Amino acid sequence: MAPTKERAPRVSRNPDLIRGIGKFSKSQMYHKKGIWAIKAKNGGVFPRHDPKPKPETAAEKPPKFYPADDVKKPLRNKHKPKQTKLRASITPGTVLILLAGRFKGKRVVFLKQLPSGLLLVTGPFKINGVPLRRVNQAYVIGTSTKVDISGVNVDNLDDKYFSKEAPKKKSKGEGEFFESDKEEKKALPQQKKDDQKTVDAALIKAIESVPDLKTYLGARFSLKAGVKPHELVF
Amino acid sequence: MPFKRFVEIGRVALINYGPEYGRIVVIVDVIDQTRALVDAPDMERSPINFKRLSLTDIKIDIKRVPKKKDLIKAMEAADVKNKWEKSSWGRKLIVKKRRAALNDFDRFKIMLAKIKRAGVVRQELAKLRKTAA
């Protein structure tokens, strides 16, 4: 309403003893808020401003349609989901084992948790074919092997980077429906390939400094005969 | 056929059941037909059923229910820890523990090492076969 832009957040001068009961009475609050001083400044009366003239709104037409039943509108839900809590065993640089999807069994390096809660992960691509990808924490085993990730910069990657492109609306032509469904296979944009290369360059250097780690990441995990997963230490 | 390991004061045993599973203890007193009083340097002296004990070959020289200090001195004098860790039973248990604590990466490295070793053995075997044939 008033044109002041930055106001300090309103703090109550009346602390709660218990919810619904303040510490100070009505007359005490009158004194604390200084209503008496404001009144004195204004000659014994609390200052009152006439309402500002409202800009002319077009005359409202009566609605064309009245619904037959009185349907209640549902209440607004302003609930925002929290980011999924990351397991303590998963820290940036951890080697993860993917358990589902196209890359199941692959051992992969964890980079960071995205704002949606999904984990950003990379093969590295040269080592095991897993690109920069999002993965749900539930479908992952965190091992205790860590890779040094200090040389890697993943600040420019977030959920928007991975969103699907909105499909272009094609004009409706009946003959075209059956032919041109999968004519164009979308080629991966060059920018994504470059991002993959920059992220992997620093990672691969760190991986090659540890003996056998490269072959480890290139191999898939599997259960063998006699192996009990509940007894395995990852 | 005759028994060699007896329940006696000073007999070192391994607890094979219960919350103290895997602990090396010394029998310090016999309570009754079923239970013994058992003690170790880093644990409170407590009764335990004989069924939960596996007797070892090691025996130390102590009096009935010694003070903790005396027990520790006697155990060091008999060098129980080293004797146990050098015995084949003790070594097997240590290997078992180490295998159970292996990382996924460690298991992978071991697999590579086993394959390498098998390859070397097979080469030598092939050489020997050639000279024998």
From TrEMBL, chain A:
Record GO terms (molecular function): structural constituent of ribosome
Keyword Ubl conjugation among record annotations: no
Biased composition (Basic residues): 74-85
Cross-referenced SUPFAM superfamilies: Translation proteins SH3-like domain (SSF50104)
Domain Large ribosomal subunit protein uL6 N-terminal: 3-62
UniProtKB keywords: Ribonucleoprotein, Ribosomal protein
Superkingdom per UniProt: Eukaryota
Region (Disordered): 41-85, 172-196
GO annotation terms (biological process): translation
Family designation: Belongs to the eukaryotic ribosomal protein eL6 family.
PANTHER family for this protein: 60S RIBOSOMAL PROTEIN L6, LARGE RIBOSOMAL SUBUNIT PROTEIN EL6
Protein name: Large ribosomal subunit protein uL6 N-terminal domain-containing protein
Organism: Medicago truncatula
Top-level taxonomy: Eukaryota, Viridiplantae, Streptophyta, Embryophyta, Tracheophyta
Automatic annotation (TrEMBL), chain B:
UniProt xrefs under Gene3D superfamilies: 2.30.30.30, 6.10.250.2270
GO terms for biological process, alphabetical: ribosomal large subunit biogenesis; translation
Keyword Ribonucleoprotein carried by entry: yes
Domain Large ribosomal subunit protein eL14 residue range list: 45-117
CDD domains assigned to the protein according to its UniProt record, in alphabetical order: eL14
Protein name in UniProt: 60S ribosomal L14-like protein
Any single Pfam family the record assigns to this protein: Ribosomal_L14e
Cell inner membrane recorded as keyword: no
Protein family (similarity comment): Belongs to the eukaryotic ribosomal protein eL14 family.
GO MF annotation list: mRNA binding; RNA binding; structural constituent of ribosome
Keywords: Ribonucleoprotein, Ribosomal protein
Gene Ontology cellular-component annotations: cytosolic large ribosomal subunit
